[in-house]
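hey so i finally got around to running the thing on that chain from the lab meeting. sorry it took forever, my laptop kept dying and i had to restart like 3 times. anyway pasting the input first so we r on the same page abt which one it is
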Amino acid sequence: MEISALYGSYKPYFKYPTLIIILSVAFFLRIYNLDNYPSQLHVDELSNIYDGYSIAETGADRWGVKYPVILRAYGESDNRPPMYSWLSAISIKTLGYSVFAGRLPSVILGMMSLLLLFFTARKIGGNLFAYLTLLIAALSPWHIMMSRLALEAATLTPFFMILTIYLFIRARESNYRSFNIICLGLCIGFATSAYQSAKLIFFLASVLLFIDLFRNSPHRVKTALLFVLGTGIGALPQLYAAIAMPDQFFSRATGTLMAFSFSFDYFKALGKNFYLNLSPQFLFLNFGSYNNLTIARLLTVEMSFFYIGLILFYWKFKDNKNLNPIYIYLFIILSILPGSLTFDNPHALRSSCNTVLFPMISAAGIVIICDVIKNKNFRTISVFAISLIIILNSVSNIRVYVSNAELIGAGQQNLLVRLAKKINLYKDKYSHIYIEDIGNQPYMYIAGYCNMHPRQFQNAYKRIDGVGWDHFIQLDKYFFLDKESITKATVKNKKDLLIFKSKQTNYLLIDSVDVHHEKMFFYAN
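ok and heres what got predicted. didnt touch it at all, straight out
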């Protein structure tokens, strides 16, 4: 059923104002108070933003590597593709170094993914299906949050997933026109620089699409060669990294993957992980429960529509000439697979591609239910009623979220942010600053929030302890030690700033920070 039928006597172009309204609301939900929802700043966001700042200012990452194709984040075990940092370098160069500028690429990518999702859904199921898909995705807690985080997993992988599907449909529609085949290949190749798990997702996607193109194109060899050429060009940075620096290329996978064994226990664990990423507890029933920087995944009212759509999606769209619906199932499997191969499941970041796939499944469930209603007026009322319920569920979630400081700060290191901002007020008055070691990678908050220019960071004296993951002991005049070591390292006649987790009696208390009942105390030596 076309969307224009739902509007009765209204003119067909009424659908365009509707599209503009949904996209405008979506943009507002992704851009409003971007600095503070969620609160500043997750440790991985800060790494990406500061590397973007460094690239914008020096042409190198914070470790001094020129034009990086792999970023060393927090140690030898934490190397990641650089695309998000390169994108944030553009926004930081334009707007200056800030949380807003660092997160802005995610907002833009999130909005672009919504547009692509709308056009893709329209090609699969028509206008009604497209508008329902867009409405659900625009109000999805998962998609909104991913569009507000400066993380490579958040919007880059969903963006490339929906772009791949859209370009694949365009290639088929154009009878495998060369230009469209090259664009499809480039898209898949570029996606390998997006996120660690994207390497596996889009490698498998390339194999899947290569087989389809080779089987169905009237010019098999030419199409296959053009697809391989485009993919190879797009993937060149990561192909180079895999050959020139294999340890860095595979480092994250080495530490997170379950050890493979051809055993019942291994495949049982894999199957359980798949289920967990599709379970109602993870997707619908745990609003307010934290999972990898999300506090909700999908709207609760979607649940029945989602599982109906998941079961009947193929049946509903099996006659579609643009895309065999079996591919949507295959792309969902590919999106869940990398996370399922690891220990930590369910995982909202590693399976983030589903932020653009699952809205199509829920929308399909709504369309299938409405198709059962034979009376046109009842069917129209049902669609509007379901749309209204979706909107009300989203409004309710948003109201709870913005009024709850714990939800806003879930997963963020709020104490370190406040601490670094306060240190910024004192740093020029003291020759050494000793900080009782807290949190995850506190040195990054000093660099990011104490106005440390990337060149200063690159040239600063550094003492790092540990193998695999960094444990900073010293960055320039900042020291990160336990309380006993700080006491031993300081001499009374030095002009030092000492920061402890608990109150001290033998120093002069000058300030403190307090975040959610966590405190740090500032003392002059």
